[in-house]
Write a structure and sequence with these properties.
heterodimer; A: about 250 residues; mainly alpha; about 75% helix; B: about 400 residues; alpha/beta; Rossmann fold; Coagulation Factor XIII, Chain A, domain 1; six-stranded mixed beta sheet; about 20% helix; about 35% strand
Chain lengths: ~250, ~400
């Protein structure tokens, strides 16, 4: 972990070149990475505001921010998961701390989410919502989520070297998670007796807290922040432990 | 670790586990949780000890699968030892493969920065050396060309030029001593010599014994993961070329034997400068070919001949006893005839030998067409197929 600080320029390099590669290969370029969450947003917005008639203030912003927060988890862990297995020659022929690759890929996802957030900001202004002062807390929420993403990615990428179906299992879990987390709907639709259980999900806390601070000018609960950071700490520690345990044989197994 | 040593390898062993049936999914692993896993163990390295002093150049030689690359991989820290340990003192750079991490969709410039980062160079360091890199690679015109539009030779030149900028204390090289065309190879050679002069510790794995001779003071010889010899370059290379029994005997090719059988060639053997039977020779060394024959009845005036071919069947040389003015009156029963070669002038490669015995009128008794072969390893880096004895002299 200290080593990674010495290799920070390599993390930056990997993150940026990965981003470059993504938009160099297609005509629409960077727009593609924006288009995907945007399209999901449009479909979900249509379904839930016209057909399901969810009654939420600024539902379009509410939904969009939820999707962006979820996107960081989904993009980050999916890209992180492949970071080792997609670069076998690098693993076999050059030495550098392997976690650099994972953090680099997660950073690419973070950069992509930044672009989405820029679009979101334009969107907010378009709907006449000025970001409130509480939005200043949002970067800290995002940081917590990023650390969770790195922790998960470390574990997943290492496991994926040994078990090739981890990627499929994780994709299914992510999809299930999408619906179990209040991305499209507000927390109040949970049956009141189970709300406590659903709110153990740190992603629910992240999304809720983000909405409160960015859209509704409400300070997040201290428990929200606490749960997010405790999860981040545990995820990073566990992920790093698993990664380090499996790392010595990467070059033989990848 | 002694302070004057750059690399210390202590009692190093590496085991690879090769399962018969590999479980690559969680599902398979769960499904077979009760079954016994059968696997084979393969020791790629067994008890290697090596210490390389600072500024020393050590070569590692041995046939394919002897563990040379595994050794470099472990010193690089890509693979981890099963037993023993490796200590490294100084900044280590390894050229195990050139151009690892190159992205074909990025430009040459972007790739230099990316590859440099993998090799441990910061952007600032590359900024300073960028012109040198491009100049060395000879790719000035192609700085902003996408890598995929460069030829493979250009890519490897770019990789080499970037990699050598790392300013290592210790440099590990696996078969990438010289890349590109002749001119670039010359530049590579100069660079390595410069490294050597600067006191960089070199550890070289190569099949190019000429290069090993040129750069290395000491050589480690591996055979099937075991340390066979460690010592002076000449001595160990001789041991490698002459000492190890090759299981790969020259293969008997298609049916290419004819003659009336009045004299039968029983056997042909090659002997090296130590008088030992061998199939491997170093260019410039002597060789003796012994032909054993058998004549059931008395045969008068037989002529023994030989012809030498490259492995793509170009005839290099041929002679016989008649041409050399040797008159063999008559032979009967079993016997030998020997051909003494002072000096093998060919550079390197596999050579095929035809051996024949026939009458003065060229009626073949027994003709074995390209049925024997031996290998020659080069001694220096002169170009071409064979050596012409010569020397340079400066004019007055």
């Amino acid at each position: 972990m200290i080593e990674i600080w010495n290799y920070r320029h390599l993390v930056k390099k990997i993150a940026l070149s990965e981003l470059k590669l993504r938009y160099k290969n297609s005509v629409l370029g960077l727009l593609w990475s924006l288009l995907e969450p945007l399209l999901i947003f449009i479909v979900l917005y249509f379904v839930f505001s016209y057909l399901m008639k969810l009654n939420v203030e600024h539902y379009q912003l509410f939904l969009f921010l939820g999707i962006i927060c979820w996107d960081l988890l989904e993009k980050g862990t999916m890209m992180g998961l492949y970071s080792i297995t997609s670069k076998p020659t690098l693993i076999k022929k050059v030495y550098f701390p392997r976690e650099v690759l994972v953090v680099g890929m997660c950073s690419t996802a973070l950069l992509m989410v930044f672009f989405e957030l820029v679009v979101f900001l334009l969107f907010m202004l378009l709907f006449g919502v000025i970001p409130p002062i509480t939005a200043l807390i949002f970067p800290f929420i995002l940081l917590g989520e990023f650390v969770i993403v790195v922790g998960l990615s470390l574990a997943l990428s290492a496991l994926n070297v040994y078990y090739k179906d981890v990627q499929y299992i994780w994709a299914v879990l992510l999809r299930a998670g999408f619906f179990l987390t209040p991305v499209i709907y507000p927390v109040i639709i949970y049956p009141p007796q189970y709300v406590g259980w659903f709110l153990l999900n740190p992603m629910a806390r992240i999304i809720e807290a983000s909405r409160k601070t960015v859209i509704y000018n409400i300070m997040p609960n201290i428990t929200d922040i606490l749960i997010i950071y405790v999860t981040a700490f545990v995820a990073l520690l566990a992920g790093y432990f698993i990664f380090m345990k499996l790392e010595p044989r990467f070059a033989e197994e990848v | 670790m002694k302070i004057e040593n750059a690399v210390e390898v202590i009692n190093l062993s590496k085991k690879f586990i090769v399962p018969h049936e590999k479980k690559t999914t969680v599902f398979e692993t769960i499904a077979s949780i009760n079954k016994k896993i059968s696997y084979e163990e393969f020791w790629a390295l067994k008890g290697i000890n090596l210490s390389v002093a600072k500024g020393e150049s050590v070569g590692v030689i041995g046939e394919n699968g002897s563990g040379k690359s595994t050794l470099l991989n472990i010193i690089t820290n890509v693979l981890r030892p099963t037993k023993g340990e490796v200590k490294v003192n100084g900044k280590l750079t390894s050229f195990l493969e050139l151009g690892v991490g190159f992205q074909s969709d990025l430009t040459a410039r972007e790739n230099v920065y990316l590859y440099g980062a993998f090799m441990g160079l910061s952007d600032k360091q590359i900024d300073k050396k960028f012109n040198d890199i491009i100049e060395f690679a000879g790719l000035k015109k192609f700085i902003d060309t996408k890598l995929k539009n460069l030829s493979s030779g250009m890519q490897v030149r770019l990789a080499f030029s970037t990699a050598i900028q790392t300013n290592p204390d210790i440099l590990l090289v696996d078969e990438v001593l010289a890349v590109g065309d002749l001119e670039f190879q010359q530049k590579c050679t100069e660079k390595f010599i410069e490294f050597k002069k600067r006191g960089v510790t070199l550890l070289i794995v190569s099949h190019d014994l000429g290069a090993i001779r040129k750069y290395c003071n000491r050589v480690l010889l591996l055979h099937k993961g075991e340390q066979v010899a460690l010592g002076g370059a000449e001595e160990v290379i001789d041991r490698y070329v002459y000492g190890i029994d090759k299981t790969a005997q020259p293969t008997q090719g298609k049916k290419t034997r004819w003659g009336d059988g009045r004299v039968v060639i029983k056997d042909v053997k090659f002997y090296d400068k130590f008088g030992k039977e061998s199939y491997n020779f170093v260019s410039g060394d002597p060789m003796k070919i012994r032909i054993s024959y058998f004549a059931a009845k008395e045969v008068e005036n037989p002529v023994f001949g030989m012809a030498l071919y490259t492995d793509n069947h170009v005839q290099c040389y041929g002679t016989n006893t008649d041409l050399k003015g040797i008159d063999i009156k008559k032979i009967k029963g079993a016997g030998n005839i020997e051909l003494d070669i002072d000096k093998l002038t060919m550079h390197e490669g596999k050579y095929l030998l035809t051996v024949a015995v026939h009458s003065k009128e060229h009626v073949p008794y027994d003709w074995l067409d390209k049925q024997f072969s031996f290998n020659v390893t080069k001694k220096n880096n002169d170009a071409g197929m064979f050596e012409i004895p010569c020397k340079w002299e400066l004019g007055p």
